[in-house]
Amino acid sequence: MLLRLNHVALAVPDIEAAAATYRETLGASVSQAEALPEHGVTVVFVELENTKVELLEPLGDTSPIAAFLAKNPKGGMHHICYEVADIVAARDHLVASGMRVLGNGEPRIGAHGKPVLFLHPGDVHGTLTELQQV
Amino acid sequence: MLLRLNHVALAVPDIEAAAATYRETLGASVSQAEALPEHGVTVVFVELENTKVELLEPLGDTSPIAAFLAKNPKGGMHHICYEVADIVAARDHLVASGMRVLGNGEPRIGAHGKPVLFLHPGDVHGTLTELQQV
C-alpha cells in the first residue's frame, strides 16, 4: 500500500530562520515561504533529490501544530507522509484493521491539493502518519 | 550539500510489533530485524519506492535511543538522515558555520558501513540530523 515517501514535516518556531539554515548552511534548494491559512501553517519546501522536507510554522490562532510547538519550543519532527494509490481504499482497509483516522474519518484535501488523511499516532507506534493519494 | 534523503528513523519500543504493523497493516516491504550491538539498536528497514524508513529498538544497556524512548514510551520520530558527497568537507563547512557535531566531532562508520555524523538538534531547529557520505 505505501508507495513513495512524499515528505517529512518538521515544525519550527521561526520559518525564515529555519529556511536560512537549510538554504545557506546546509546548502539545500529551499522554496519561498507560503502561507496556507486554511491549513493553519506557513510552509517552506526543502527539495532533495528523491523527496522533500517541509518546514512548518504555525499560522493563526488554531494552527494544528501549535500544541506540538508548545511542547517542543525549539521545533522537531512532526509527521511523515506516504503516498498511496487510493486513499478511500486505504482508509477502509486501515479502519477495518483497527486504526483510527483523525478528524471525521473522511479524507480531506491537503496542502498539496490532493486527498489526505492522518492516522492516530497511537496506532502507528508513536509517529503521526499522513497518507496522501498520488 | 544535501543530496538524497537517505532515511527517516523511528524509535519504537517493540520492533517486531512495529514491523508487523508496517508489513501487514500498511502493506510495505519490510526487512527482517537485524541486531547491531555496536550501534546499540535492532533495526528493521521499511523499503519505500524512493527511500527507506528505519525502525529502531534499543539494544543493550547503553543504547543511544534509550533516553528518547524513556521520554516517548510509545515511540516516535527520532532522526532524519541526508546524504552528502564528502562528509569531512561537510563537517568542516558546518563547524565553521557554528554548528555542533555530536561526539568527538569526527565522522564515524555508521550502521550502513559509511561515514556519518550527527548534528546537534539545537542547531537544526530541534531535529536530530544525521549526514551520511554516499
From TrEMBL, chains A, B:
Xref: InterPro entries: Glyas_Bleomycin-R_OHBP_Dase, MeMalonyl-CoA_epimerase, MMCE/EMCE_epimerase, VOC_core
Catalytic activity: (R)-methylmalonyl-CoA = (S)-methylmalonyl-CoA
Listed CDD domains: MMCE (cd07249)
GO molecular function, a single term: methylmalonyl-CoA epimerase activity
Keyword Cell cycle: no
Keyword entries, A-Z: Cobalt, Isomerase, Metal-binding
Family membership: Belongs to the methylmalonyl-CoA epimerase family.
VOC domain ranges (all copies): 4-134
Family matches, as NCBIfam families: metmalonyl_epim (TIGR03081)
Protein name according to UniProt: methylmalonyl-CoA epimerase
SUPFAM superfamilies: Glyoxalase/Bleomycin resistance protein/Dihydroxybiphenyl dioxygenase (SSF54593)
One GO BP annotation of this record: L-methylmalonyl-CoA metabolic process
Highest taxon above the source species: Bacteria
EC number of the protein: 5.1.99.1
